[in-house]
């Protein structure tokens, strides 16, 4: 029965696998996945063994259960066996723990992630103050990264299961996590510490790229934001100012330097809106601006559905989409 | 127990048979329950016990309905059956109600129902305290649950992590509802624990040594001990957070020197033992049921008892398991991982002892057996995933995902609910009428199938990346099928509970007797009435009904100890803690309204404080206080009874009045002091923890100093003087005129009051302010805690004075004085310890 139950686990690999510890894309997740399979296998074996002993005690002819009626049976099964297996497991798991926290590179790529209710600010301090994005962590394959994790309000927890386990983001502290991505891919991460009303809608994408692609992306993030020439985009930029968006959002090279919401300098290039909730294109941008409180009630973004008419909304969305 | 062995010149039973006819009549008369509305004043365990169990099961059903709503919401991705705000209240209430209003009260309820009969006593020593605990739990719990209908239910998770629950992030009363509502219901758990500790240690039948005590009593003893040491931590944590929310005393806000992790340490120092608090009594129930169903003595009894006690100790070293992902260095986590492994060993011992016991006998395939086997299946699986999540790196992945949801439900449903259902079917014939075999089997298979179908897929959805406490999830991650299976399983589980409910409603009636339904060997299968057993059995074996087949008949005929009411009151036989040698006959009170009024007042006080309605809260406080005083005034510390001593049987002559360290009231006071001491240690630990977090440079922070030494020394002297005064007063009582006793009490009161004032002044004069920084907050909280104790000490002294003036205090009638003295000595000691920390710590280190 237990074997049958474990079959679905084996089928896990066949699923999408973008948010699971059992489809590792990096060294840390790989080590933990190995350990996990060892635990599942050992656990299943012990479970079957104990159930078999129980069945034997209940069903076997009385003459064949003599050995189970003694104190030494209890001591062997309840003390000796767990002491030996658990001691072995302890030694092994400490080895894994140690390997996970040992730094590999002297100067890993540092990435700051600051959690806010209910989104993620992501900064690349080694690349300069302008290298900032939101709800998306890009990283190069093959290079060790160190995440510097903090929170601006309540406790959150960052989890990219395909790359590593969780690390809490606690106000007043900076927690660190190191790993090396070994396979490219678009992976999903999510907040795993209950952080309030929209905890359920606080995800992000982690994009593991070839180093060249990553460097190109990083350079583009810091390049000046071009001035729009298309009248539609000019209109959109004007609406951005008139609606007061700049009080909370920053767009590099403009007077708008708000820090309460995500930096929008390159918002058009991101994979998602509203922390992994929506696809990102002109339509969803307009929809989010108009109905942020319907899509994700209680988040800090006000709804502009009444303040802006359809034309203005679409122009604004067009300009934002063009910020790539 | 040589002195209890039958002596050749006596009859075989401790008391000669047959008994005079009017003896039983008189016994029944004093134990008769009042009728009509006055039934509310009754506190007999035969009434309170089943009500307590029923209330706990009601909360199980209520919290279960919340779970069903959540499962419906998660059946498919993106459903909007409930909104996020409601969902967050649902899971917070589900966890909170299950843990605080179902699991802990349920095992306490089973204990109050069964223990008196199992120990062979007529009543536990403090029945009114037990009834008070039940009433505040039932009334408070229902009011707390009702907050859900007003959108005022807590919504920060049952763990209530700040700063999400701080005033800034959760301004509504939802959080206060948790902190105050649950905080005071914990008082009920602690009151119950004190009752159980003293009851188990001092009210066992003569000859029931610790070695012969049933395993369930051991389980409850460990349970109660753990409650005493674990629950103060959550009360302290709730108090600190409420102080922060209501008065701005910062403990958890990093910008003011606080630390959010302080909450987690305190909460899990309670929260992890809590799991074993729930599991150990359930395991102990299994250790009672398995021998009866196998018809064989429990294999390795002493190892099983050792396992219970050992688990109790180890469980206090596990709290960091819930904090693996907080950034604590990995190698410090190794210690806790090892403790996590260690705690699985005693569980293994018990599992193998049960398997071996089954192997020793011939199993009866009855409903309780099915539930025990279901328990073993589910619990072993949950235990194995428990070892997995103790492995630090694995937990970094599994933590806060549905894998944990699966694990915890496997251990809690497997480890607690199934044993409880086994107990329900097993003991129903001992407490009342038996339940149906057919419905029992239907219920079992529905529940067994439903629970596995609900929770096994959660291991997989967790491993596929589904975090806990999310109100919806997107499609396309492969989570759909597993969630649908869980939802279907939840419906099957609900059906199973419904069948159990129907069975109980149709077939269970308290008071019936089918005494040898399973041919079990322990005392609870002897015929019981309001007065407990007809006579108190003489115990010479762990399974007395198996080793002495005549025992049941002898006891029921009144041939054993104390077959009468000697003083015309309700009585209980008090025995020594280890050997159960009879010591005295305790006279118990008759029913009264005091504890009922006190319970109503207590509930009203805390809920008015939550809303907040401060004037009403003050009125309710006075009502509660009045009720307590009334309760104490009538029935506690009674007049020494006539006759002064009686022969309980076997020519054992016992006094009917006792004073000093031998009394149950002394033991209860000492246990209470352990509770107070643990809470104080938590405050002390919080102060030290915050110092470590802040570092010397910010402790005290600029602008605040150390407390002034001279008022501090003055306070220390006055606390000492107050303690001395009460010692002298207690010594003089019965030896000198009452005037001198009263004078010493008044002197002591003056010194304690002045001491507390000097204590507070030393902080204020040192520039310490509670609202600016965690240093001031932590320091003033220690003082506030001490100040509260001084206030209670003064109240107790005033009460003692009143007893003296009313002529209810003398050299023999002195329990009031002795209890006051103990509390005063504790208060003085605690004051000295607090002063030593606040004044001495830096000065000594510097």
Radius of gyration of chain B: 28 Å
Indicate the low-confidence ranges of chain B by residue numbers.
1-10
CATH topology of the largest domain in chain B: Cytochrome C Oxidase, Chain A
State the name of the first-level CATH class of the largest domain in chain B: Mainly Alpha
Oligomeric state of this protein: heterodimer
CATH architecture label name of the largest domain in chain B: Up-down Bundle
Name given to the CATH homologous superfamily of the largest domain in chain B:
Cytochrome c oxidase-like, subunit I domain
Structural class of chain A: alpha+beta
| Overall mean pLDDT of chain B | 94
> What's the CATH H-level superfamily name of the largest domain in chain A?
Cupredoxins -  blue copper proteins
Strand order of the largest sheet of chain B: 1-2
Count of β-strands of chain A: 12
Features:
heterodimer; A: about 325 residues; alpha+beta; Immunoglobulin-like; 3 domains; five-stranded mixed β-sheet; 7 helices; 12 strands; disordered N terminus; B: about 850 residues; mainly alpha; Cytochrome C Oxidase, Chain A; Four Helix Bundle (Hemerythrin (Met), subunit A); two-stranded antiparallel sheet; 23 helices; globular
Model description:
The complex is a heterodimer of chains A (324) and B (846). Helices cover 38% and strands 19% of the residues of chain A. With 324 residues, chain A is an alpha+beta fold. Chain A has 3 domains: 2-101, no CATH class; 109-211, Sandwich (Immunoglobulin-like), CATH 2.60.40; 231-322, Immunoglobulin-like (Sandwich), CATH 2.60.40. Chain B has 846 residues and is mainly alpha-helical. Chain B folds into 3 domains: 45-507, Cytochrome C Oxidase, Chain A (Up-down Bundle), CATH 1.20.210; 591-630; 685-845, Cytochrome c oxidase, subunit III, four-helix bundle (Four Helix Bundle (Hemerythrin (Met), subunit A)), CATH 1.20.120.80. Helices cover 65% and strands 3% of the residues of chain B. In chain B, the strands form 3 sheets. Chain B has a two-stranded antiparallel sheet with strand order 1-2. Chain B has a two-stranded antiparallel sheet with strand order 3-4. The longest helix of chain B has 36 residues, at 84-119. Chain B is globular, with a radius of gyration of 28 Å. The N and C termini of chain B lie far apart (58 Å). At the A-B interface, helix 1, helix 2, helix 3 and strand 9 of A face helix 3, helix 9, helix 10, helix 11 and helix 13 of B.
């Amino acid at each position: 029965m237990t074997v049958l139950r474990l079959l679905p686990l084996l089928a896990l690999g066949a699923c999408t696998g973008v948010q699971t510890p059992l489809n590792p894309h990096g060294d840390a997740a790989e080590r933990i996945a190995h350990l996990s399979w060892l635990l599942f296998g050992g656990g299943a074996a012990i479970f079957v063994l104990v159930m078999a002993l129980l069945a034997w005690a209940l069903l076997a002819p009385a003459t064949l259960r003599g050995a189970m009626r003694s104190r030494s049976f209890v001591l062997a099964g309840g003390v000796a066996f767990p002491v030996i297996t658990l001691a072995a497991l302890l030694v092994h798991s400490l080895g894994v723990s140690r390997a996970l926290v040992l730094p590999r590179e002297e100067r890993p790529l540092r990435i700051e992630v600051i959690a806010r209710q209910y989104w993620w600010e992501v900064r690349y301090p080694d690349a300069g103050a302008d290298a900032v994005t939101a709800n998306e962590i890009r990283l190069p394959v093959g290079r060790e990264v160190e995440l510097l994790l903090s929170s601006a309000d309540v406790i959150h927890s960052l989890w990219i299961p395909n790359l590593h386990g969780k690390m809490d983001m606690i106000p007043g502290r900076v927690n660190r996590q190191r790993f090396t991505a070994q396979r490219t891919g678009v992976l999903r991460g999510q907040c795993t510490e209950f952080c309030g009303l929209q905890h359920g809608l606080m995800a992000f994408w982690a994009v593991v790229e070839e180093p060249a692609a990553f460097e190109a992306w990083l350079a583009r993030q810091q390049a000046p934001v071009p001035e729009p020439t298309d009248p539609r985009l000019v209109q959109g930029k004007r609406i951005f100012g008139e609606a007061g968006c700049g009080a909370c959002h920053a767009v590099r090279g403009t007077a708008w330097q708000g820090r309460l919401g995500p930096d929008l300098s390159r918002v058009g290039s991101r994979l998602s809106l509203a922390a992994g909730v929506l696809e990102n294109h002109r339509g969803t941008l307009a929809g989010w601006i108009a109905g942020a409180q319907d899509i994700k009630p209680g988040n800090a973004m006000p709804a502009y559905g009444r303040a802006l008419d359809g034309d203005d909304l679409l122009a604004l969305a067009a300009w934002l989409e063009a910020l790539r | 127990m040589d002195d209890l062995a039958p002596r050749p010149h006596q009859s075989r039973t401790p008391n000669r048979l047959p008994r005079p006819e009017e003896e039983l009549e008189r016994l029944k008369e004093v134990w008769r329950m009042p009728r009509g509305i006055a039934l509310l004043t009754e506190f007999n365990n035969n009434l309170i016990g089943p009500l307590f169990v029923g209330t706990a099961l009601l909360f199980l059903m209520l919290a279960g309905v919340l779970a069903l709503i959540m499962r419906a919401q998660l059946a498919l991705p993106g459903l909007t059956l409930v909104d996020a705000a409601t969902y967050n209240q649902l899971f917070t209430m589900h966890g909170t109600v299950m843990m605080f209003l179902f699991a802990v009260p349920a095992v306490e309820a089973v204990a109050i129902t069964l223990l008196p009969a199992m120990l062979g006593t007529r009543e536990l020593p403090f029945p009114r305290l037990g009834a008070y605990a039940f009433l505040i739990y039932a009334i408070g719990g229902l009011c707390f649950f009702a907050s859900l209908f007003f959108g005022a239910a807590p919504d920060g998770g049952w763990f209530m992590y700040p700063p999400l629950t701080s005033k800034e992030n959760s301004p509504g009363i939802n959080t206060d509802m948790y902190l105050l509502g649950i905080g005071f219901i914990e008082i009920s758990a602690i009151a119950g624990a004190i009752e159980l500790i003293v009851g188990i240690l001092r009210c066992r039948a003569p000859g029931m040594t610790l070695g012969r005590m049933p395993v369930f009593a051991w389980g409850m003893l460990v349970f109660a001990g753990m409650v005493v040491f674990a629950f103060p931590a959550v009360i302290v944590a709730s108090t600190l957070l409420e102080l922060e929310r209501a008065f701005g005393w910062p403990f958890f806000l990093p910008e003011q020197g606080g630390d959010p992790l302080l909450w987690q340490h305190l909460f899990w120092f309670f929260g992890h033992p809590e799991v074993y608090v729930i599991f150990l009594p359930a395991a102990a129930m299994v250790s009672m049921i398995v021998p009866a169903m196998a018809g064989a003595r429990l294999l390795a009894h002493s190892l099983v008892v050792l396992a219970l006690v050992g688990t109790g100790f180890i469980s206090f070293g596990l709290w960091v398991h819930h904090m693996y992902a907080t950034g604590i260095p990995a190698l410090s986590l190794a210690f806790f991982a090892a403790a996590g492994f260690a705690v699985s060993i005693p569980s293994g011992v018990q599992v193998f002892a049960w398997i071996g016991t089954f192997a020793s006998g011939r199993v009866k395939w009855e409903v309780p057996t099915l539930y025990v086997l279901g328990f073993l299946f589910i619990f072993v699986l949950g235990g194995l995933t428990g070892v997995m999540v103790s492995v630090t790196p694995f937990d970094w992945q599994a933590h806060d995902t549905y894998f944990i949801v699966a694990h915890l439900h496997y251990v809690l449903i497997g480890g607690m609910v199934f044993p409880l259902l086994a107990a329900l079917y097993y003991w129903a014939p001992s407490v009342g009428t038996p339940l149906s075999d057919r419905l029992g089997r239907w219920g079992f298979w529905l529940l067994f199938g439903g629970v596995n179908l609900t929770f096994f897929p959660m291991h997989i959805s967790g491993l596929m990346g589904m975090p806990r406490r999310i109100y919806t999830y997107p499609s396309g991650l492969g989570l759909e099928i597993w969630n649908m299976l869980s939802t279907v399983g939840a419906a099957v589980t609900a059906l199973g509970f419904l069948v159990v409910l129907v069975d109980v409603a149709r077939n269970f009636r308290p008071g019936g007797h089918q005494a040898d339904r399973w041919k079990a060997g322990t005392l609870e299968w002897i015929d019981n009435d309001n007065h407990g057993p007809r006579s108190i059995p003489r115990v010479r074996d762990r399974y007395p009904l198996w080793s002495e087949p005549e025992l049941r008949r002898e006891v029921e005929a009144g041939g054993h100890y104390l077959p009468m009411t000697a003083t015309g009151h309700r009585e209980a036989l008090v025995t020594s803690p280890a050997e159960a040698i009879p010591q005295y006959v305790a006279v118990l009170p008759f029913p009264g309204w005091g504890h009922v009024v006190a319970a109503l007042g207590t509930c009203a006080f805390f809920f008015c404080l939550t809303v907040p309605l401060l004037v009403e809260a003050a009125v309710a406080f006075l009502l509660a206080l009045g009720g307590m005083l009334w309760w104490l005034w009538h029935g506690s510390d009674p007049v020494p009874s006539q006759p002064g001593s009686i022969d309980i049987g076997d020519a054992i002559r016992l006094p009917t009045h006792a004073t000093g360290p031998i009394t149950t009231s002394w033991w209860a006071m000492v246990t209470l002091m352990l509770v107070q001491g643990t809470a104080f240690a938590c405050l002390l630990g919080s102060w030290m923890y915050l110092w470590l977090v802040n570092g010397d440079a910010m402790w005290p922070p600029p602008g605040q100093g150390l407390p002034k030494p001279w008022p501090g020394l003055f306070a220390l002297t006055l606390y000492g003087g107050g303690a001395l005064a009460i010692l002298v007063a207690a010594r003089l009582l019965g030896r000198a005129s009452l005037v001198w006793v009263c004078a010493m009490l008044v002197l002591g009161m003056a010194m304690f009051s002045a001491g507390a004032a000097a204590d507070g002044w030393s902080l204020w004069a040192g520039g310490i302010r509670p609202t600016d920084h965690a240093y001031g907050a932590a320091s003033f909280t220690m003082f506030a805690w001490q100040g509260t104790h001084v206030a209670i000490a003064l109240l107790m002294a005033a009460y003692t004075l009143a007893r003296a003036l009313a002529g209810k205090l003398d050299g023999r009638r002195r329990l009031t004085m002795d209890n006051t003295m103990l509390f005063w000595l504790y208060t003085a000691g605690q004051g000295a310890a607090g002063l030593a920390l606040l004044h001495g710590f830096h000065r000594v280190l510097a």
